[in-house]
Specification:
Radius of gyration: 20 Å
Shape: globular
Structural class: alpha/beta
Number of strands: 10
Largest sheet: 8 strands, mixed
Strand content: 5-15%
Length: about 350
């Protein structure tokens, strides 16, 4: 199969290697020409996936036409803030109506509050029956080393989910299907915000009790927002909800948790972002989630406090105190099966 992976971050590179090893013709489209040339020569993504060799059979280019020539499957692995412009360029090049498109990007666009599948529907006419989203607990660093991993994919057309299962599955990479595109995408995006909050707990040094409480209540917030937007609340108990929440909040590889930890230690967001090579999707997603929660009137206190810390210079310790000082409530009325 002829496959193009758009985006040469750690996840894009990992998926390109996985798909190449399965016998596919794979190309990686890197935005910056100089880094594309470097990757092609070095055969190691030193910025985003160090110590992992990129097979010589994988084509690395910054040319859209070269990467997408006769392509049958496109894997979109670019940060959410660059997603729409990238999709526009793809639409200018791709003329075939048979190309399957898989989004592995986790985020919510700031200006429009759109999920990635919504952007695709807006920018590529007639893509609905060729669109798949893939999400779940999957750090590139572990998948690239064949650590057992399970993820979930969702599509408007069931047959496409089954296709992606077969194309991506290996002895260490297992794919489940789920018909709930809204829930799968929101779970993958919102857990990054909760991971920042969990990192703040680590930075302050509050311990496991606080982290457990925050993750659990964070899942309740994710479920409430998802339910209001038409997602199945049960989806948030699955891989793209609870599963991704656990790994992103607890892992040493989590960029979002790392951002939160530095905030908890008193660092400013500006200084943190200046030193980061990789994109922490939870930062822009916090802004989107906060605005979205206000727009559709869903109570998301953790998201609100993370927003205040990130964008209003609120002290992390004060945010924690304010969360704990809110009026007491019933868990049954605020969690998965309860009222919005």
């Amino acid at each position: 199969m002829n496959i193009a992976v758009v985006g040469a971050g750690g996840w894009g590179t990992t998926l390109a290697i996985l798909l190449h090893k399965k016998g596919n013709r794979v190309s990686i489209l890197e935005h910056f020409p100089d880094y594309a040339k470097f990757l092609d020569k070095k055969r190691e993504n030193v910025k985003f996936l160090p110590n992992m060799s990129i097979p010589k059979g994988i084509i690395i280019t910054s040319d859209f036409k070269e990467a997408l020539d006769k392509v049958e499957l496109i894997v979109l692995a670019v940060p959410s803030q660059f997603f729409r412009n990238t999709v526009k360029k793809i639409n200018e090049v791709i003329k075939s109506s048979d190309v399957l498109v898989v989004s592995v990007t986790k985020g919510i666009e700031n200006d429009t509050l759109c999920r990635m599948s919504e952007i695709l529907l807006q920018e590529i006419p007639g893509i609905k029956n060729r669109l798949v989203v893939l999400s779940g607990p999957s750090h590139a660093e572990e998948v690239s080393k064949n650590v057992p991993t399970a993820v979930v994919c969702s599509a408007f057309k069931k047959e496409n989910s089954y296709k992606i299962q077969n194309i991506f599955k290996t002895s260490h990479f297992r794919i489940y299907t789920n018909s709930d595109i809204i829930g799968v995408e929101l779970g993958g995006a919102l857990k990054n915000v909760i991971a920042i909050a969990t990192g703040i707990i680590d930075g302050i040094g509050l311990g496991d009790n606080a982290k457990a409480a925050l993750m659990t209540r964070g899942l309740a917030e994710m479920s409430r927002l998802g339910g209001k937007l038409g997602a199945k609340k049960s989806t948030f108990a699955g891989l793209s909800g609870m599963g991704d929440l656990i790994v992103t909040c607890m892992s040493k590889f989590s960029r979002n948790r790392a951002v939160g930890e530095l905030l908890g230690k008193g660092k400013t967001l500006k200084k943190i972002m200046q030193k980061m090579e990789m994109v922490a999707e939870g930062v822009p997603t916090t802004k989107s989630a906060y605005v979205l929660s206000k727009k559709i009137k869903v109570d998301m206190p953790i998201v609100s406090e993370v927003y205040s810390v990130l964008f209003e210079d609120k002290l992390a310790k004060t945010a924690v105190i304010d969360l704990m000082s809110r009026p007491v409530k019933s868990e049954e009325e605020t969690f998965l099966g309860g009222r919005i």
